[in-house]
Specification:
The protein has helices at residues 15-26, 33-46, 52-92. It is mainly alpha-helical. It has one domain. It starts with 14 loop residues before the first helix and ends with a helix. It comes from Sphingobium psychrophilum. This is Arc family DNA-binding protein. Pfam families: Arc (PF03869).
């Protein structure tokens, strides 16, 4: 039985775009699923008239935003690790 909120959509996409969508949808960037859904919605709204160039441009923009988010996440993890070290040092100095 299908979930009431489940929607099945068939899209014709360039294979490179499909491959990247698949990687992002199933990979570690689950937080970007909202961005992927927004991209798919834009594709659906544009319908069959959407040119491959326009879709690739939109996907390129999304990839850039994903890369920035990944970099920000890496920077935050480094900062958190540094803070953890500082806290551990302070706790070690307690009487």
């Amino acid at each position: 039985m299908k979930d009431k909120d489940e929607v099945r959509v068939t899209l014709r996409l360039p294979s490179s775009l499909y491959d990247e969508l698949l990687v992002k949808a199933t990979g570690s960037q689950r937080s970007m699923n909202g961005e992927i859904i927004a991209l798919l919605s834009a594709i659906l709204l544009e319908g069959q008239d959407a040119s491959e160039a326009a879709l690739l441009e939109e996907w390129s923009s999304l990839r850039t935003r994903i890369a920035i988010a990944e970099n920000d996440t890496a920077n935050m993890r480094q900062r958190m690790a540094w803070l953890d070290e500082q806290i551990a040092r302070l706790q070690d100095k307690r009487p």
